[in-house]
Amino acid sequence: IYNRQLQELIDSQNAEIISINEQMVELDKTNKGILPTLEEMVGTLESIINNDTPFLLTERKARVVELKDILKQSNISTSEKFRRVFEAYQIENEYGRTVEAYRDEISVDGQNYNVEIFRLGRVGLYARTADGDYNAMYSRSEKKWIKSKGIDNDLVIALKIARKEMPPSLIKLPLEKI
């Protein structure tokens, strides 16, 4: 009886070993398919950032560099690599549905301005100097900042809304035709 029970235990363990080996083979096949896809996704993300409205470029480009580095590391699991790439896509997706205010420096006609930027999703990007003397709107078609007159009051309100100093309300800023 004892020998029969041991044999059943050994047979069960052998079946488990076979199952684990089969799973490892399948995992290798999955990795061979996923890793090139992840690399392609990071390349696509980089292309999106390079062709998008230039907001938070340092942060966004650093994220891509970090993802490229992660994909090369062997000590990071494939699932973690996938999670990080997917998380980067989620962050980029969020940019299309949110407003944001941040400080940055822009260059217009060879002159640099320290400005507060207002980002309206992926649709509009606006800049205002602290004293309000200079207001600009980013032109996607011309790929440069264009001085805008008459938007200062609306831009101040938009910045306050983005900083949560005012409740959300209708924002009256011009949009570029696409």
Describe this protein's structure:
- The protein is α+β, with helices and mostly antiparallel strands and 178 residues long.
- Helix content is 53%, strand content 20%.
- The protein has helices at residues 2-51, 57-72, 78-95, 152-162; strands at residues 99-108, 111-120, 124-129, 135-139, 144-147.
- Strands 1-2-3-4-5 form a five-stranded antiparallel beta sheet, covered by helices on one side.
- Strand 4 (135-139) and strand 5 (144-147) form a beta hairpin.
- The radius of gyration is 26 Å and the shape is elongated.
- The termini are far apart.
- The model has no long low-confidence stretch (mean pLDDT 92).
Q: Total helix count?
A: 4
Subunit organisation of the chains: single chain
Termini separation (Å)? 82 Å
List how many beta strands DSSP finds: 5
N-to-C series of helices and strands = HHHEEEEEH
How big a fraction of the residues is strand?
15-25%
Main sheet overview: 5 strands, antiparallel
Low-confidence segments, ≥5 residues, pLDDT <50? Answer: none
Average residue-wise pLDDT: 92
Brief summary:
With 178 residues, the chain is of the alpha+beta class. It has helices at 2-51, 57-72, 78-95, 152-162, and strands at residues 99-108, 111-120, 124-129, 135-139, 144-147. Strand 2 (111-120) and strand 3 (124-129) form a beta hairpin.
